[in-house]
Amino acid sequence: MAAKKLSPMMQQYMDIKEAHQDCILFFRLGDFYEMFFEDAKLVSRELELTLTGKNCGLEERAPMCGVPFHSADTYIARLIEKGHKVAICEQTEDPAAAKGLVKREVIRIVTPGTVLSSNMLKEKENNYIASIYAGEESIGLAYCDVSTGEMNLTTIRGTNQRENLVNEIVKINAREVLVSQETDDKIDTEEMKPVTEAYFNIAADEFYRPDAVRDTIKRQFHVSALLGIGVEEDSPAEFALGSLLLYLLDTQKNSLGHIAFLNTYTLGQHMSLDKATIKNLELTETLFEKKLRGSLLGVLDKTGTAMGSRKLKQWIKEPLNDVTEIALRLDAVEYLTDSVLARNNIREQLKHVYDFERLTGRIACGSANGKDLIALSASCSALPEIKYELSECGSRLLEDLDDEISSLEEVRSQIDAAIVDDPPFTIKEGGLIKEGFSSELDELKHSIADAQNWIAGLEGSERERTGIKNLKVGYNKVFGYYLEVTKSYYDLIPENYIRKQTLSNCERFITPELKETERLVLNAETKINQLEYDLFLELRQNLQQYIGQIQKTSRAIASLDVLTSFAEVSEKYGYVKPQVDDGDVIQIEKGRHPVIEQTIRDGIFVSNDTYLNKEDQSLLLITGPNMSGKSTYMRQTALIVLMAQAGCFV
């Protein structure tokens, strides 16, 4: 007897799975993503889903489980949290037009560091993926937030390289870290995993081929030589950056046009904070409960946008070391503190600004829908008023931000001309494009207006003609339009009614006229939906030429949001402008702990002074019983210095 073989559909699944063995394959079948064999068993166990089976051509049914495609993000997010990778396999041709088996391809691979869906991202947190490459004398570190297009690169040199590397990964809170097998052997990532709490991914050798690495970097940033973007050839930094780009191209399956700017930095540019410092000073969350309330971020965050909140967290973790840059921030905060009307107007306009950075990422990656474009348009509408408040304000930093903010009038006008005010979430089912935008689309809609009106009025006219008072006109995807009559009126059913379906208490009918009108409407609606989809894709593609302007604007808006938040907090809590210089003296008069003073319900926080220098008073010996405030005094001093170097009043 001939050996049984897999069915064509299951063979297609196995071929695609063979190319993505390290991923859970979400295989699109109709309205569901299905998983089979070992993937099905794994997902069933991890997500507590029912495990079923499917005939696959073999003697035993294939283990199977599935999730609805419209809610797949929820299930994917849970799998990613558990450290799995998910390959999304979609139908790449219309089933109605396909001859034989529908073609399917993996359109994207989702890993902890490459999440794009807004449902899977934390609004006020970056989602970084990092890449490490260890050389003989230095370590290259590149990290990127795919959802915003932010790309950073540094080289770690000198002593304590591994310790400094861990501190950087902790500081950015990387979700995923890419390493080569060679690098993994050199720096022993097993010891780093519990400290960083990141998902470490040993990447294939193909991501580290010198020619591929170099060509990819040049192509991504449109340069003919790496030195043009501050990268040395054959350096660990080059391999860290190039391998990360190759990995992202492999998982995202698109051009990554929004990753167009590379920020290179050295570790000395910012105050060096290790994990213990960030944790014990409770900079972004409380020590034990892991909550925002009770942390420094919880006190300082009065931002109006998600990207501003992310930027604030970054500034808190990366206080400046350059006195000139610190002074520019402090001067900007001073202007915004003193100019109450300007600050209030800016804060009011920021309420209308959506997450520029991630909207741009979705446009670049081809996942933006109509609502995303409307949000982008609304954000653009707030920009002219913000620019007005910044122009000629006298603060160099604020005027520099004004120069970086584009009004984006072209972007707004294109979206407003094309997209309806309240578009649907889907982009393939019509209802997206405004009347007057496309004459071809308008003609199609007008051509079926009479037929739609006829169907809309059919229920009333048939009730009057037949005397069936509860007659209803309905529609479903299986039978199309139908006339529904309950059993109590069977004796009044006209001869031209054709029985289509029998239910427990009613019958459903069609008429030749109804079916002909339905054919006209549905054929035209199919064309309308396809044309609207094509017009939307064309608009989204056109908007990609503005990605650089939008990103530059979003970075400036995020910084302005933080500076405005600093000014709001400073006025509210009576903070003062610190004097920061290159000297070795820390002198604080009437200092207060910024967090604890906000948690005191009864009484007041007793202010106190601090004086330290490198010459004759480099150490303070603090004594006293438990709970007398020793650690409060120490942390207070650290937080005040940190706030000053971040650019905030203290």
Backbone CA Rg: 31 Å
Structural category is: alpha+beta
Number of strands: 18
What share of the residues lie within helices? 40-55%
> Alpha-carbon distance between the termini?
85 Å
What does this structure look like?
The protein is of the alpha+beta class and 650 residues long. Helices cover 45% and strands 15% of the residues. The strands form four sheets. It has a six-stranded mixed sheet with strand order 3-4-2-1-5-6, with helices on both faces. Strands 11-10-7-8-9-12 form a six-stranded mixed sheet. A hairpin with a 2-residue loop joins strand 1 and strand 2. Helix 13 (340-350) packs antiparallel against helix 15, helix 16 packs antiparallel against helix 21 (547-573) and helix 19 (449-466) packs antiparallel against helix 20. The N and C termini lie far apart (85 Å). The model has no long low-confidence stretch (mean pLDDT 92).
Reconstruct the topology from this structure:
Elements (H helix, E strand, L loop, with lengths): L7 H11 L5 E6 L2 E5 H11 L4 E3 L7 E7 L3 H10 L4 E6 L12 E7 L18 E6 L4 E7 L4 E7 L4 H12 L3 E4 L1 H7 L1 H8 L2 E4 L7 H12 L14 H17 L9 E3 L10 H6 L15 H5 L5 H12 L5 H16 L1 H11 L5 H9 L5 H21 L5 H9 L4 H10 L20 H9 L1 H18 L5 E5 L3 E7 L11 E5 L3 E5 L1 H32 L3 H27 L12 E6 L4 H4 L8 E5 L17 H17 L4
Parallel strand pairs: 1-5, 7-10, 9-12, 10-11
Antiparallel strand pairs: 1-2, 2-4, 3-4, 5-6, 7-8, 8-9, 13-14, 14-16, 15-16, 17-18
Quick gist of this model?
This protein has 650 residues and is of the alpha+beta class. Helix 7 (210-221) crosses helix 8 (236-252), helix 11 (306-317) crosses helix 21 and helix 19 runs antiparallel to helix 20. The N and C termini lie far apart (85 Å).
